[in-house]
Amino acid sequence: MTVDKVLDAKGLACPMPIVKTKKAINELESGQILEIHTTDKGAKNDLTAWAKSGGHELMKHEEENEVLKFWIKKG
């Protein structure tokens, strides 16, 4: 998987990870992939729902050392 942009949203509380994700994905072309790092536990549900409602694809997510990582492909 080729990541086109990495967003560091660690330490930010809701709704900032979503706000920053929206801004970052707007800078990408359709089909490009955004990797997001966040420590907000609510981001799992938030980003899943946001990606679906925006027509984007949540490729995968994982947790590593208290950091949630998401890969979203722009729709």
How would you briefly describe this protein structure?
The protein has 75 residues and is of the alpha+beta class.
Keywords:
single chain, 75 residues, alpha+beta, Translation Initiation Factor IF3, four-stranded mixed beta sheet, 2 helices, globular, TusA-like
Overall mean pLDDT stands at 96
| Integer tally of domains | 1
Order of helices and strands: EHEHEE
Q: In which order are the strands of the major sheet placed?
A: 1-2-4-3
In oligomeric terms, what are we looking at?
single chain
Instruction: Specify the CATH homologous superfamily.
Output: TusA-like domain
Dominant shape: globular
Pfam family, one: TusA
Protein name: UPF0033 domain-containing protein
InterPro entries: TusA-like, TusA-like_sf
Family: Belongs to the sulfur carrier protein TusA family.
